[in-house]
Predict the structure.
Amino acid sequence: MILNQPAAHPVSGDDPARLDVCAAASAFAEYYRCPAALARLDTAGDLSQRQGYFTFGGTVCYGRRAGGDPSLELTDVLEDVSTHIARGAEGVALPFDLSEIVGNLRHERYRVNGYPLLERVTSNEVVRQLYYLVRPALQVGARKHLQKIRLRGWERIPFPRWPVDTTVESLMERAMAALLSSGHGRRIPFIWFWPDGARACAMMTHDVEGEKGYNFVSAVMDLDDSFGIKSAFQLIPQGRERAWRQLASALRARGFEVNLHDLNHDGHLFHSRSTFLERAQQINRYAREFECHGFRSGAMYREQQWYGAFEFSYDMSVPNVAHLEPQRGGCCTVMPYFIGDIVELPLTTLQDYSLFHILDDYSVSIWQQQTAAILERNGLMTFLTHPDYLTDSAARTVYTALLAHLRQMRDHANVWVALPGDVDRWWRNRRDMTLVRQGDSWRIEGPDAHLARLAYASLDDGRVRYTLSDDE
């Protein structure tokens, strides 16, 4: 499948490190790519001054609401605002700004409520510097012991929901249900999420962190190829330029993708805004030099509001639910989304290191549970494994089972297995597509429109149901 490369859209503004992460168009229109005339969502009443938690049909929201103040804490009893929906001749008015709520979730603004004491202590910059200073000398056994102490109690974190959080998807479907039940149409057309009508998308990625992993890349390529799966490798550039070029050349010659992995993986990329801006310039230079379009930060550290300083086309540094990551939070969605003009391809499944060394689980059961949940939501399954940890035979056996599972989904569940660069291009092109009325039906126009499929959302016993026009 070949996707057209869209034109670049440079980010502008007085401050390149800060950008308005809320798109000018509504989050609903961006998500579904449906005709604006059929998706008239507004906000009912004045919104509260403060932000906080409430629910919409049982789905957790964070932000401002109409008709009262939200809760400052994520308690067991949150007010449900679904009864405050207003329906009229012009459309539906929700008791909140859907774009604001979705933006708060995707960009992890709900984290302002703070962290547990242990996490605050272990997130201290001095502690972090000490850890990364001694990290190269630590064996995996010592590292995982320290990390287990820090992550203790992760299973009791109520939000985002483990092992996959689909809050954004639930909000979109509830908003769609409100439109459909308002009497303005039996069904609403939209542009299907993936090319050729694929049910979901999956991509395999590998972060190469050390010498052992570097030396095992060729074996991982062989293993991936044995299942007919191409993957993306993220390499640390600083101080390894010569080796980087050689490995990147070998990867690309075999049809694999190459991206940057941080600058030097010392944990300090987002230490401060000034540090980030300085390092972002170096990262951008490496990206141009090595012709890389994608990025993933070390240890999944992130500050999405600073991403305007990057020159990448796409990023892969935001977890869906980050209970087992050094930086807690999560974007609460299994779909790509835009941060300014950067496409975020979130990590929606568990890292191999966390599976093997934090949970002590050498099976694919959690991955299977996650992929089933993502498939149900027609989302993106992003996998992250490390050649550094796959040298162990037990880990490699589990990874081989994962590849078999991925091949099974591709061959029998209509899952599009793609490289991150292809997913990035598709999501950009889909954003630029439009639906044009053609008699009693609709026609899709825009880049790669021949790969797109017309879909309809309708209500089936009160639940939103998606149908591809080809299936009618």
